[in-house]
Design goal:
- With 381 residues, the protein is of the alpha/beta class.
- Helix 1 packs across helix 13 and helix 9 packs across helix 12.
- The chain starts with a strand and ends with a helix.
- The relative contact order is 0.12.
Amino acid sequence: MRIAVFSDCYLPAINGVVTSIHQQLEVLDLLGHQVDLFCPRYDRSEGVERNLYRLWARPFIFHKREQFSLPWPPRVLRRMWSQPYDIVHIQTPFSVGLIGMATAWARGLPRVFHHHTLWEEYVDYLPLPKRVTAAGSVALCRGVANGCHGVVAPSREVKERFRRQGVRRSIDVIPTGIRAQAFQGGRALPELGQEEDVCLYVGRLAHEKSLGGLIEVFQKIHAQHSSARLWLVGDGPARDDLEKQVASLGLSEVCRFFGFVKRECLRDYVASARLFLFTSLTETQGLVLLEAQAGGLPVVAYRASGVNEAVEHGVSGFLVEAGEESEMAAWALQLLRDSSLRERISTNAQAWSEKFSVERMGEALVCAYEKALKLAQNRAK
């Protein structure tokens, strides 16, 4: 199968959508399919990459970390319009996604939309009331989805939410796959002190991740377990505010901000930690939770869309209602103090994560493509 993939973000950007797309490309290639990816150019120095076609782009005026892309240069447009693609996979609903939609519609190609993110929860940076921007985001995603022959969601909860928002197309639930081995076999970092118990967070440092609440949870943990440490791996617009919060709570000596780290190094951070803390309420799947569990880390998190399907409560970790900081801290303390409980949950977490392999994701994606192809063919008759 020849597949054209359109996304408004890709490497060197680092986020959950990029990780998912990268995994998809790898597994589709292993399954023998030919995939072209159309995405933004982040830097003029970027060279030609195999089956990767960069569109001219500029930083989005209201969010410099994101790109607004243009249908240019001609070399990329020729590839886009000349190849005999069997299907078009729209990963995001913005500039590149809309270019892909227009190309697929004009060429009469079947198309699938991947609803990775609850975009309406990520519009705070726009200079308009959130009620307006959220409604516009929902309308855009609904329009793109209903203009396709199939839709993919990463969890059942996202599927149901998208359905309530007016999506009429068939929606397949396909969790993003992980390579469990990539998070196993790490070595504890030299930053880890003797007798220290690290609580780990990996992800963007953004306000929508509710990280202020995570730090308050850790304050409760540290007050009763002085050897507890909090490591935050990742970066983002909330970092300055979080560092100020840590300082104001007198936790600067026991909290560390590591910034972005190479993906291949994450296993060492996992190997250094005792458990994984997570307070985000805006996840579509919680991919980072599966990765942490693959490395044997018990998870303590708030119940939320996506998170509920990434963690098996009482088996691979513990889930509490949002805002229940004392209960979250209590579960974390129990895991830190009870080594037999922690080892049992760790073993369960690794077994649980194996259900989310990239191979399963690839096979499910191909099935979704075949369904969309069949629907398009039936409509053409």
